Amino acid sequence: MQQLDNQEILMKLKSSKQFWDIKKKLKQGLGDQQKIGVNDIQKFAQSCEIEDQLTKLISHILRKSKKRESLKEDQIEFLNTSKIKWTELLFKNLDIVHQKTKNQEEDDTNTDSKLYIYDEKNLLAFLQTFKQQQQSIALYQNVQFQSNKLLNVNIPLKSSQSILDKYQYLLLQEELQDDKINKIRKQIENEHIDIELEKIAQTFVPNGERCLLYLKYFEFDHQETVLQQNFAKLQKECSNQLFYDELLEIDGHEISEDTFYFVFQEQILTCLKCFIRDRTIKENIRIQLQNGVKKEHAEFQLPVTGFFPFKNISKYVAPLCYLSTKIHIIYALFKEFFCRYFCFLHAISSENNSILSLCMQIEEIVSTRSPKLFHHLKVIGCDTLKLIIHQLVYCFIGDMDPPHILTIYDSIIGHDSLEILVILCVGFLNKYKPKLLLAKNQENVQQIFSELREDRFQELVQFAYKQ
Predict the structure, then answer these.
(1) DSSP strand E in 335-388: where?
(2) DSSP 296
(3) What share of the chain is helix, strand, coil (3-state, %, to 5)?
(4) Range list of H helices, 107-156
(5) pTM for this structure?
(6) For 410-427, what is each residue's pLDDT tens digit?
(7) What is the rounded CA–CA span in Å between residue 113 and residue 93?
(8) What is the pLDDT of residues 89-120, one digit of tens each?
C-alpha cells in the first residue's frame, strides 16, 4: 500500500467538514484563556473527546486510501494466466455476438435473445476448468483437496466458521421501535466517519435515510454539483453510438419485465450507457475483470472501462432507482458499488470477495453442514453451485423485493464485504432442502424454482443456520 505522507493527511483533514467542526469546538473552549500551552490543548481535547474524534478522522482517511487501491495482479500466478485466457474467450464470444447482430439486421425474422458476451453460467463453467496447482507451497498447505467439489482450486480461504460467526448477530435482530429508528436517523445525519456508518449499516438503515448514508459513506454528500456535471458530460458522449449500446438495450429490456423495475427502464439504460463510456472507472475499480489486452486486428476492443458488459448488468442498477429521483445520484451510487464490490463477482482472483472464493465457501459450508443435500444434488447432476450461481452473482436481485435487496446492499457496506451472499445462498438452499431432496433429476429441480416463490433477507439468514 502506498503510504500517505503527513502533508497529504493534513490536506485531506482540511477537506473534511468534521475537521473544521473540531477546530471550532477547540477554539470556543479555549477562547477566553490569555495564554494557551500544548498541555492546555491536550487536556481540553481529552476532556471533550476531541482527541478521539481526531484519531478516528485520521484513521478514516487512511482506511479510505487503502480501499481505493486497485488490485492488478493476483498472488497466485496461474490465476493471472487464467484471466488472460478468460479475456481471449470473451473476445471470441464478442465476435459471435457481433455476427448474430449482423444476421438479425439482414433477417428480421431471425431473433436471438442470447445476445450477450457472457453470463454467470459461462463464468462458472470457466472456473470449473481450473486445476489444482502449486500444491507444495507452504502458504496453501492448510487448504485440502476435495475431489467431490465442483471447484478444485488451491487458494487460501477464510474459515467457513468465521463467516458464519460474523453474521450470527443477524439472528437476534428484532423490529425496532420508533424512538430507536429516530435515533439512528440522527446518527446518520450527524456522522461522517466510515467506521461509524458501517456500524449503522450492519444493524438497521431506515428507508428514508439510506440514500444519505450511502452518499456519506462514498463521500458524495457535498459533491452533488460535481456529480451532476460529470454525468452530464457522459450523457453527451452517448450521442455517439457504440456497438455495446445494442447489448445494453437488450439487457435493459429484460429487466423491464420485472414488475418492480419496469418503470425505471429508461433510467437504468441511461446509467449503463454512461457507465461503459466512463474513463474514470478503469482507475477506480478495485480489481481488473479482464486483463486489458488489445487484440490485434479486432473490429472491437474493450470499452474504456477495461471490461466487457455482461448479461444482467442492469440488475445492479435497478434497486438503486428506489433511493433517488435524481439520475446522477443513482449513477454515482451504482458506479461506486460496482467499482468497490460487484466487480469482484466477475473477476478471476483469489481475493476473499472474489466469485471463486465465495463459491468455494458455499461449497464448504453446504458439504459440511448439509452433506446429505450436497451429495444428493451431486448424484442427480445438479451441483450446489450450479443451483445458486445466479443468486450469488446478481445478489438475489429479481429473487427478493427491493427493500430486501437494499438490506443486502446495507450489509455489504456494513462489513465492507460480499460475504453476506454466502450466508444467503446457504440459507436459500436450506429453505428448499425438503423439496430438493425429493427431486430425482434436473428437471424436477427446475420445476421447484419455476414455481412462484418469495424469499426474504431475514428468512434466508435464519435458514442459513439450520442444519
Answers:
(1) none
(2) T
(3) 65, 0, 35
(4) 120-128
(5) 0.84
(6) 999 999 999 999 999 999
(7) 15
(8) 999 999 899 888 877 766 655 555 568 999 99
